[in-house]
Design brief:
Elements (H helix, E strand, L loop, with lengths): L9 H21 L2 H28 L22 H4 L7 E10 L2 E9 L5 E4 L16 E3 L1 H10 L1 E4 L8
Length: about 170
């Protein structure tokens, strides 16, 4: 059985460390006591000022601390539809996101979209094409109550970041 070579053994590390540090150690020890005190005091002041700067900067920001928040499904009732959304054709939908998870022991996944009037639609087999968000391509309208039931049981993945962007 061959022995593996240990390329960086403890002895080697200690040897390298000593060869790098010993010249600085000798230089510092050769200084007079007053110079050593000045160097140590200036180093201490520098480290303390850097630490205080970091602490003051952290306390002075007006941001709220990062807390765990659960995304809620953004629906037409929760947002203000922009003027761009009102200019959409009658059969065009605005993507909201995707819901997926387990319902009654079975995997459920579908895409969620809204039309310009605020009605909610789902599609279980979205085609990836230019007209994927056209009402005629397998989209079914669902009620707010059905959406709330799904929201309690499934995980929501926003379409683009948080909320709707047009």
């Amino acid at each position: 059985m061959k022995k593996r070579k240990n390329y960086l053994s403890t002895e080697k590390v200690n040897g390298i460390t000593k060869t790098l540090i010993n010249p600085f150690n000798r230089w510092f020890n050769d200084l007079n006591t007053r110079t050593k005190k000045v160097i140590l005091l200036s180093m201490g002041i520098t480290v303390c000022s850097i630490g205080l700067t970091v602490i003051i900067q952290a306390l002075s920001t007006n941001q709220e601390p990062n807390t765990l928040t659960i995304d809620k499904i953004t629906t037409p009732k929760d947002i203000h539809m922009s003027d761009k959304g009102k200019d959409l054709p009658e059969d065009q939908l605005i993507p909201v996101g995707k819901l997926k998870g387990e319902v009654n022991g079975e995997f459920e996944a579908f895409y969620l979209a809204v039309d310009k009037h605020g009605q909610t639609y789902i599609n279980r087999s979205l085609e990836y094409s230019d007209d994927a968000y056209s009402k005629s391509k397998g989209w079914e309208q669902i009620s707010r109550q059905q959406l709330e039931m799904y929201e309690k049981q499934l995980h929501f993945i926003p379409a683009r970041g948080k909320g709707l962007k047009l």
